[in-house]
Write a structure and sequence with these properties.
By secondary structure, this protein is of the alpha/beta class. The chain has a single domain, classed as Arginase, Chain A (3-Layer(aba) Sandwich), CATH 3.40.800. The chain contains nine helices and nine strands. It has helices at 47-62, 86-102, 117-128, 156-162, 183-191, 199-205, 207-218, 250-258, 282-297, and strands at residues 5-6, 26-31, 73-79, 106-111, 131-136, 166-176, 195-198, 222-228, 264-271. It has a nine-stranded mixed β-sheet with strand order 1-3-2-4-9-8-5-6-7, with helices on both faces. Strand 8, helix 8 and strand 9 (264-271) form a beta-alpha-beta unit. Helix 1 (47-62) packs across helix 9, helix 3 packs parallel to helix 4 and helix 8 (250-258) packs parallel to helix 9 (282-297). The longest helix has 17 residues, at 86-102. It is globular and about 45 Å long. 51% of the residues are buried.
Length: 298
């Protein structure tokens, strides 16, 4: 196990650094990988440790919570990946995820860009079969493939359908938007079988109606929650790979996560924190709060 994971400079919420997954309820797993393909933004591979560092204060504040989301939670460290090869990185991520899931432990991953979600879904399918998906993101990440070997941070949910990794009839993209519109992307994503709830619909519905809809759609299913931090508006989360105006404010996004209480969550994924563009670390701090709310769901 030590061949695929290594100790982080600090641990999430100052949790124990451990790979004894049999004794843990959930395990934090850093995935310091990005494809390095963005023309203007890079560095999501630095996200895991930035979130960990920001989580120290969040962990102090958790001491006043009425529940302990950190009970029997460990930090396993970071997956040992090379920045130079996407297939080798995917294999390492999948092996590390298998170690967690084989111990009946729930992984909470810290990316990395959105590409890291594909090997996670491969591992989740191996452990649980095709599961329902709640993907909170400004983008659907279902780009049309240029070839069978087209892998990047916008194709992971296209491959997920092609590889039959998920229960696409119960897979929902929440928060989709673009500077003008994203109608072509939305139409293609729906053609693949996904439900898409654009952010304009989220805003019109309000939190209560959205949460009731999501609960109704995936209740009774095993659920993978994937949260791209650009779901939030860049005014509150500027340090992401593809900032897209018109998203959720911090309180709104956190409330949506709280509303998922009661679902049968089998894996949690937070990605695209990009520290080089994160003034004062506000995005990493918000990601730490997202992590705490996700652990509280369990």
């Amino acid at each position: 196990m030590s061949q695929s994971l290594f100790a982080a400079p600090c641990t999430m919420f100052e949790l124990p650094l451990s790979q004894d997954f049999d004794q843990a309820r959930a395990a934090v797993l850093g995935i310091p990988f990005d494809c390095g393909l963005s023309a203007t933004r890079f560095g999501a591979r630095l996200g895991p440790n930035a979130i960990r560092q920001a989580s120290v204060l969040t962990g102090v504040l958790l001491k006043d919570a009425n529940v302990d989301p950190l009970e029997r939670v460990v930090d396993a460290g970071n997956v040992r990946v090379s920045a130079g090869g996407i297939h080798g990185a995917f294999e390492a991520i999948e092996r590390a995820m298998n170690m967690v899931l084989d111990a009946d432990c729930i992984p909470l991953t810290l990316g990395g860009d959105g590409a890291v979600s594909l090997p996670q879904m491969r591992s989740i399918q191996r452990a649980h079969g095709p599961v329902a998906v709640l993907h909170f993101d400004a983008h659907t990440d279902t780009a049309q493939l240029k070839s069978n070997d087209h892998y990047d941070n916008a194709t992971q949910f296209t491959h997920a359908v092609n590889e039959s990794l998920i229960d696409v009839e119960h897979a929902i993209h929440v928060g989709t938007r673009a500077p003008v519109n994203a109608e072509d992307d939305i139409a293609y994503t729906r053609k693949l079988g996904y439900e898409v709830i654009p952010y304009v619909v989220v805003r019109n519905w309000g939190e209560a109606k959205l949460i009731a809809h999501l609960q109704r759609r995936v209740s009774g299913k095993k659920v993978y929650i994937c949260f791209d931090m650009d779901f939030f508006d860049p005014s509150v989360a500027p340090g992401v790979q593809t900032p897209t105006p018109g998203g959720a404010l911090a309180a709104e996004g956190l409330a949506m996560i709280r509303g998922l209480k009661g679902l049968d969550v089998v894996a949690l994924d937070i990605n695209t924190v990009t520290p080089l563009h994160d003034s004062a670390g506000v995005t990493a701090t918000l990601a730490a709060s997202v992590a705490a709310e996700m652990l509280a769901l369990l």
